[in-house]
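Entry: tRNA-specific 2-thiouridylase MnmA
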Amino acid sequence: MRVLAAMSGGVDSAVAAARAVDAGHDVVGVHLALSAKPGTLRTGSRGCCTIEDSHDARRAADIMGIPFYIWDFAERFTEEVVETFVGEYAAGRTPNPCVTCNEKIKFEALLEKAMALGFDAVATGHYARLAVVDGEPMLRRSVDEGKDQSYVLASLTPEQLSHAMFPLGDSWKSEVRAEAERRGLSVANKPDSHDICFIPDGDTQKFLENRLGQRPGELVDAETGAVLGQHTGVHGFTVGQRKGLGIEAPASDGRPRYVLSLEPVSGTVKVGSSAGLGIDAIEADRAIWPSGQALDGPTECVVQVRAHGGIAEAVAEADGERVSIQLREPLRGVAPGQVVVLYRPDNESGDLVLGSAKISSTR
């Protein structure tokens, strides 16, 4: 097959490309330029997509002996990922930009261009696996559950999955680094990028304030309605947040206060004790079914609401693009705007992804 290998400049995508070559595919490497100012998107292990990263990807492609190109997706990345991120926070929701990037950039824009150029598949360094169930590709968790990225890939469609390759899904991260060392790849010990790539200093609040300005409002006790303080914008908060509230007095239980809800229209941030964070039901919309099949009646499943953590057994039911979820055990700090991913437990092949949706409300 003709395979386009997405090469970020990190160890995972480099080894994924090398394995595609070893499998006998006709491989071409491509690095996505996602910023008009690439020098600003990395600080140590934070961020990605810098000039340094493109050079690392090119050196890895040279060692493999494969063609290598850089494609400029900066404008689309800004529109689809960065502006969506800002808009969601302005609306009092908590987005996951990695989910958006995989959906809109790596497996929509990139795959679309790859198919137009005659490629059969796109290979990436994601830690996830594909399983064929009843003749259809299904996404499932990686062997290395600590690095599993099926959560951020759960918005892919069956058609996109049929043209995707995840060569690292059956490997542990330690094995991938050791393999990169054996292959003589200079990225073998390169730190993993983390946090939000377009906010390399990790200061999300400052980034959002620079984009949205100050939108003053009140910090209000959820139990009594008492005003406890002022803030400069609901975009500086997320449900479950404890630090940075600027409130000295503890909650009624004598413990720290947490953000319980955001009201962007009034500018109100409601805070209270940790007991107020627990929820047992989720409503979500904009459902996507990578499995190709929507839920058929109430379905026992496992749900995950964060890329790492926030997992509980549940019963889910779909109605068109809406999904109602009743949790078997409460989850804390679940915010509108987050993605909820539904898994079907499978002891033989690992958890299979049934679908995903955007959380609209909780109770």
